[in-house]
What we know:
The chain has 404 residues and is mainly alpha-helical. It has helices at residues 3-33, 37-40, 42-62, 67-87, 91-118, 125-153, 156-177, 189-194, 199-219, 222-229, 236-259, 263-284, 288-303, 306-316, 321-348, 355-398. It comes from Yinghuangia aomiensis.
Amino acid sequence: MPLALLALAIGAFxxxxxxxxxxxxxxxxxxxxxxxxxxxxxxxTGYALGVVVGAPLMTLLGTKVGRKTMLMLLMGVFAVGNLLxxxxxxxxxxxVGRIVTSLAHGAFxxxxxxxxxxxxxxxxxxxxxxxxxxxxxxxxxxxxxxxTFIGQAVGWRLTFAGVAALxxxxxxxxxxxxxxxxxxxxxxxxxxxAAFRNVQxxxxxxxxxxxxxxxxxAVTYIAPMMTHVAGYSDGAVTWLLVLLGIGMFxxxxxxxxxxxxxxxxxxxxxxxxxxxxLALFTFTAHNKILAAVTLLLVGALGFATxxxxxxxxxxxxxxxxxxxxxxxxxxxxxxNALAAWLGGIVISAGFGYTAPNWVGALLxxxxxxxxxxxxxxxxxxxxxxxxxxxxxxxxxxxxxxVHH
Length: 404
């Protein structure tokens, strides 16, 4: 494994920690600022929307400089945003800190995915992307539970200060380990934007929004669901987040391995399984053991979609992958924002803390429909191309002299 992939994984670890740790600390942050839990959920929605806006914006700015330089700048922005969150005296300023942090997220993963794919042989691209995203999933096993524990024991502000320090470590890791990468040749705005005319790129991003939205509908409100419905203590949330992280880690590895072999079948399996698991979660959330098992499954099935979806976009946007890759990271977070918002709506409407699971199941099922549609369009396009080849070849063949 190239050491540069390790550097990217370190950056991903810091970003993964700050993105997901809010979910474990939502009740504490809500109490501290005197807001409701659905209102505190805007810290998830705001962060996710910041990624959606920041991903293309920062990536386009990044076409002016080398990719390594841009990755270092993004880690700097990330550190500053987390420090602002840690010091925020009011909830609106906390939200601003989250949005500043989020601006680095999409472009880091978008540019990082392209860099990771370029560091290895063509048949190992999805595996290299998965290696970078391993930092994100390990964050859910180590960073998020540790941050949640520190936040509950000492105070959530210390958690965000620690994440800001992680950003500095990530910056130096990239400076040391990622090879110098010049500004990509031919990185023109018109060419990058043209990739979005491909309906397959748009469909892949639609799958990303809906599929990952399904995961976040459940996990955004995991702390109140597990404490109020399943009957776990506040302290147990840390270990439940470890379990979720283990599921995400395993799912990401499996997704990376099989996306290089059978990409679309992998998406059918994971999206279908995710829809079923989320629907069942509504019922299993009332039992401690079943709730924990379902949480593991949701994490695994959700993150098994990440490498194939990212590779699908890179494959379809060939020739101009950087912006499409970053926008797809924004699409993951658009799904997060949509799901956190919808989950807050059904909770506020009085349907209870398990209601977001139904929202998630419907979103994942819709993503599966898009995957089937995408494959059907691809088959139709291939069939037309094959039908055109013999016709084109027949005319010159008819003029050839016949020899006996």
